[in-house]
TrEMBL record:
It catalyses: NAD(+) + NADPH + H(+)(in) = NADH + NADP(+) + H(+)(out). This is NAD(P) transhydrogenase subunit beta. It is found in: Cell inner membrane. InterPro entries: DHS-like_NAD/FAD-binding_dom, NADH_DH_b, PNTB-like. Keywords: Cell inner membrane, Cell membrane, Membrane, NAD, NADP, Translocase, Transmembrane, Transmembrane helix. Gene3D superfamilies: TPP-binding domain (3.40.50.1220). It comes from Aromatoleum evansii (Azoarcus evansii).
Amino acid sequence: MSGVIQLAYFAVAVVFILGLKAMSSPVTARKGIVWAGYAMIAATLVTFYTPGMQNYGLMITAIVTGGAVAWWSGKVVKMTDMPQMVAIYNGMGGGAAAAIAALEFARGGTHGVTATTLAVLGALIGSVAFSGSCVAFAKLQGIMTKTWRLPQQNLVNIVLAGLAVVLGLAIIVTETPPAVIVIAFFVVALVLGAILTMPIGGADMPVVISLLNAFTGLAVGFEGYVLGNPALIVAGIVVGASGTLLTQLMAKAMNRPIRNVIFTPLSGAAAGGGEAIEGTMKELSALDAASVMRYASKVIIVPGYGMAVAGAQHKVWEMAQLLEEGGVDVAFAIHPVAGRMPGHMNVLLAEAGVPYDKIFDLEEINADFPQADVALVIGANDVVNPVARTDKTSPIYGMPILNVDMAHNVIVVKRGQGAGYSGIENALFYKDNCRMLYGSAQQIIGEVITHVKALEV
Ligand code: NAP
């Protein structure tokens, strides 16, 4: 490949990395994603000038088709459906990496041992990421509602992984591998990805998606080496590294080692455990909620997945502004895994216009709850469950939570008595200082706003 092309790929990779770096701050995040996007377009254009490139018709068809589907789906996807969209796009990346390897195997033996080994690794990881992401998509989209766990699941995983390695080695040592070995290798790798992901459900799914994302990055990086394409190598490694870091951060925020996420999944059914909870849930009206908050000095609002589903962020901010006009100090507390994606709540609140200086992370705000007159929990559940602090037998024991139960009064907005994502009953709802405000978040916060306004008169 000519020096100019290499240099162009290098420049594109630098802009891509700078774009990602800019995404680390909410203020520069939008610019960052635009830079990274332009860098990817530039990388695609450079590919057209790569010597020996002839398939312009196919390339343009692929770019136009993929671009149109991505544009359309990006426009129509709801914020709450974002995790499954990430899952399926991620799967496409893994599938593409595996497909590149498949073509190279079909071409046969002129690659050398290093390139073939990397191609096999990329094909294995990419196939696992592809089928695993398809299963994750089906689960999150509600297409696959059952959580399948095979008898001796972990043994089956190990046998399949071993078989994939043996078949991969056969491809590496054979100059031109017979089609039957290549096909068997891909079938085993695809089945492995699906079988690994099928038992995982509930609260672990976003971690798995992030892990599969890291796999895809790695697979793309390996295939970049096989194709001699530095942009693919850099982009793949960046995605692999960031996916790995994100996976670790989420696992830490949930206090779930990654091996437990994969080998001993936590699902609603499997969650079990936990001490029996005593007490009853006590209800309050929207009028009472409005009065308690209107005459409070400090209110901390804790949003969760339910706020996202209800699309209540604008109403919540409207209510917060009314309270502030009345002299109440209002802050927003965000748990690192509130919602279904890291940053899910930050994005929604930013979209509603909540200033960044009103939004606090768990470590920043947890000490403030004992001084808060009201902690208003809106569609959050697992991330405020005090059993994570108190009950050693609970499956979520050790997960850092927002200490809302330490506020003088807790008001919980939810529609009914349903458990959280992990399927675990919430001890908070039964506490003496906690009251339930039943209703869908948007509608019930709307009612609270009406009452707060009436109290002003
Ligand atoms: P959650 O535990 O999923 O609970 C959401 C609550 O919202 C439910 O109790 C539900 O109760 C309520 N709800 C649903 N629709 C509503 C509506 N329209 N109006 C009002 N309330 C509504 O949510 P979370 O506290 O945000 O916890 C996030 C979960 O995802 C955790 O288990 C976490 O471990 C997991 N997770 C997240 C990430 C991430 O990156 N964010 C990563 C890994 C895992 P009702 O049905 O009774 O209304």
